[in-house]
Amino acid sequence: MPHRYFTKELSGGQAALTGSDAHHLADVMRARQGDEVVLCGPDGLEYTGTITALLPGRVEFSVSEGAPGKAEPDVEMTLFAGYPKQGKLEEIIQHSVELGVRTVVPFFSRYCVAAPKKEDVKNQRYNRIAAEAAKQAGRGLLPTVEMPLLRFEEVCARFENYDLVLFFYEGGGAPLRALLRPGTAKRIALVTGSEGGFSAEEAAAAAAAGAQTVGLGPRILRCETAPLAALTAALLLTGNLE
């Protein structure tokens, strides 16, 4: 199977890779002129790229006509994840990207155990993890991990950007099956908490901002398990696990 790379430098039947991807392809994989790879552009299409030049820090390609990626869900899902402790966010990012999430937005809330620390440096690593997970899963679009939101009010302010917001609350709520089916919405946000969960005031604020309060059954899930269960259920009910 050809190796997969994401590039923003793609137009007019030509493309290029630079930086670490160019190094990996040229120096680690020892690619040669005429070798083919899969290139994914910012338009969400996949291209067959044929290497035309190997330059210091740069690999150039001619590309085929693009085609839609088969691994992309037909709904755009954003995961708002309560910031966990001890590196669990990396696990959440990796597996949620494999499942099909488009954007991960960490946030701090009242009962978060973790505290903000060197988030700009962490964010670079989080996006590298997302990129590697996207390549492994055959994604056609490069998901992003945003800088964390520092207050829950900032999370609620983002809800207006979505067709449907699902707030997963340990206090329970409406069954997912009553809210999701194929074609329900194009842009869906899923909000899950940290180890400490949400306060009653945060749950009320989410509902007031337009979120639908939902549950994940009678079991108490860890903060790194709940986002994956929520994403899997949402993808299944919207017909994206078939």
Describe what you observe in this structure.
It is a single chain. The protein is an alpha/beta fold. It folds into two domains: 4-68, Ribosomal Protein L25, Chain P; 76-237, Alpha/beta knot (3-Layer(aba) Sandwich), CATH 3.40.1280. It is built from six helices and 13 strands. Strands 1, 2, 3, 4, 5, 6 and 7 form a seven-stranded mixed beta sheet that branches. The radius of gyration is 20 Å and the shape is elongated. The mean pLDDT is 94.
Brief account:
With 242 residues, this protein is an alpha/beta fold.
Share of helical residues: 25-40%
Whole-number tally of structural domains? 2
**CATH top level class name of the largest domain:** Alpha Beta
H and E order: EEEHEEEEEHEHEHEEHEH
